Amino acid sequence: MFWQTIKMAFRALSLNKVRTALTMLGIIIGITSVIILVSAGQGAQSLIIGQIQGVGSNLIFILPGGSQKGEFSPPAASQGILVTTLSNQDIKAIRNPILAPSVQYVNPEVRGQFTVVYGNHDQQVSVAGDDDTYARVHNLEFSAGDWFSKSEVDGFTQVAVLGSKVKEDLFGARDPLGQIIKIKELSFRVVGVMKPKGVGVGGVDQDSQITVPVTTAQKILLGINYYNMVQVQVKDETYMESAQDEITKILRNNHHITDPNKDDFTIRNQKDILELLGTITSALTLFLGAIAGISLVVGGIGIMNIMLVSVTERTREIGLRKAIGAQRSDILLQFLLEAVTLTVIGGLIGIGFGYLGSIIIAHIGNWSPVVPLSGVALAFGGSALFGLVFGMYPAYKAAKLDPIQALRFE
Q1: How many beta carbons lie within 10 A of that of residue 29, not counting itself?
Q2: In this structure, are 104 and 131 located in the same domain?
Q3: What is the pLDDT of residues 167-197, one digit of tens each?
Q4: What confidence tier does 34 reach under pLDDT thresholds 50, 70, 90?
Q5: Of all residues in the chain, what percent are helix, strand and coil, respectively (each to 5)?
Q6: CA-CA 20 to 30 A from 379: which of 120, 202, 214, 365?
C-alpha cells in the first residue's frame, strides 16, 4: 500500500511537469544558495587563517592605544584614533637582549596612502615602511630583485619593493628593477618585486602595496616620530608568554605606567588573532547561511501554495478515492509524499548546483573548494523538513474533505 501511494504521488507530479519544475525551483535556488554561501565563508576563512599561519606562530604585534573592554576588543589605533605612543626609544629597549632576551627580531612599521607615479601611470597606493628584517620574518618570496638592506634602512635610502599587483598596474610586462617611481613627488628606485602574497595581518593586501625603509617612510614621507605598529619575532614559540611579559614591562617602564588598566598599548600574538578571525568568519558564515535559508522558506511557501491548488483541482479524485475505501491517512500520506518528493528532488538538484557553484567561487576567490558535509546534510535535511512542514496543511485539507461534497465538486 505504501509503495502504491508513492507511485501515485510520482504519477500526479509527472502529469504537471512544468508546474512541478517551477515549484521545485524555489527549493533548488535555496539549497544552492546555502551551500555556495557556507562554502564561500569557510573557504575564505581557511584562506585568511592559512596565510596568517604561514607567517609563523612566534609573532607578537604591538599596537598603540589600550583596549580595556575585553580580551579581543580593538585598540584605539584600529578605530581611527591617532595614537602616538610607540617611539624609537621603545624599539631600542625591546631590541636590548638584556631587557628582552626572548626577542629575536623587532620590526617597527608605519603606513600611509600616497599617489605613486611612473611615466603616464599614477594611482593611490598604500605605502608601508618596514625594517630590513621584515622579509625574513614574513617568509617573503620575490619574483625579481630582493628586499632592502640594513644599510639602506640606516641611510634613509629612497628605495622601494613593489607588491605583485602594483608592479602589473605600473609596469605591465616591463622589468621594473632599477626604474624610478615617484612617491609624494620624491624619486624612489625599485629594488624588488614580491611574489603574490595575498591578505596579511590586519587585512592588508600585500600585493597592492609598496614597501620602503621604515626610516625613509617615517622621516621623509610622513614626517612623524612614532610608529603605527611593531612586529616582534620571538626566538621560539615556547617563549611567547615570557616575551609578552618582557615587552609589557619595558613599555610600562618607558611610558611611566604604574596602573595596568591604563596601558597605552595593546599586545596581541598569532593565537589571539587567529581566535579573533575564527570568531568573526564563523559568525559571517552563519549569517550568510541564514540569509540563504530565507530562500528555502520562500520555496517552502511556494510548495504549500501549489499543493493547495492541487488539492482544489483534484477534489473529485479525492472524493472518488474515499468513496471506494481510501482512509484519511491514505489521502494525508499521498499529499505529504508529493510535497516531500518535490523538496527532496529539488534538494538533490540544488546540492549538485551548489557543489558546482562552490568550485567556481573558490576558483574566483583563489582558495581551495570547501563543501562542508554538515552544510550539505543541513540543506538536504532542511528541504525534506520543509516538504513535511509546508505540505502538512494542504495534505490535512485534502484528507478531511467530505467524500460526498468532493464528488459533487465542479
Answers
A1: 18
A2: yes
A3: 999 998 899 999 999 998 899 999 999 998 8
A4: confident
A5: 60, 15, 25
A6: 365
pLDDT digits (tens, 9 = 90+) for 246-260: 999 999 999 998 888
Task: Decide which of 233, 263, 293 is a domain's last residue.
Answer: 263
CA–CA separation, 36 and 361 (whole Å): 8
- Number of C-beta neighbours around residue 85 at 10 A: 21
Element (H, E) at 88: helix 88-95
Q: Which residue, chain included where needed, has cell 610608529?
A: 227
In terms of Cα–Cα distance, which of 179, 214, 15, 188 is closest to 109? Answer: 214
Same domain, yes or no, for 166 and 288?
no
**CA angle, corner 180, sides to 196 and 118, nearest 5?**
75
Sequence-ordered alpha helix ranges (H) in 314-408: 315-323, 328-365, 373-399, 403-408
Q: Are residues 288 and 172 in the same domain?
A: no
**Distances in whole angstroms, Cα of residue 122 to Cα of each of 1, 111, 170:** 76, 19, 7
Of 229, 263, 297, the residue at which a domain comes to its end is 263
Taking the C-alpha atoms of residue 98 and residue 39, their distance in angstroms, rounded to an integer, is 49
- Which is it for strands 142-145 and 186-194: parallel, antiparallel or unpaired? antiparallel
Secondary structure letter of residue 119 according to DSSP: T
Name the pTM for this structure.
0.60
Give the 3-state secondary structure of 277-314.
HHHHHHHHHHHHHHHHHHHHHHHHHHHHHHHHHHHHHC
In terms of domains, do 292 and 251 share one? no
All three cell numbers of 409, joined, read 465538486
Domain count, the chain: 2
Q: Is 256 left (phi over 0), alpha (psi -120 to 50) or beta?
A: left
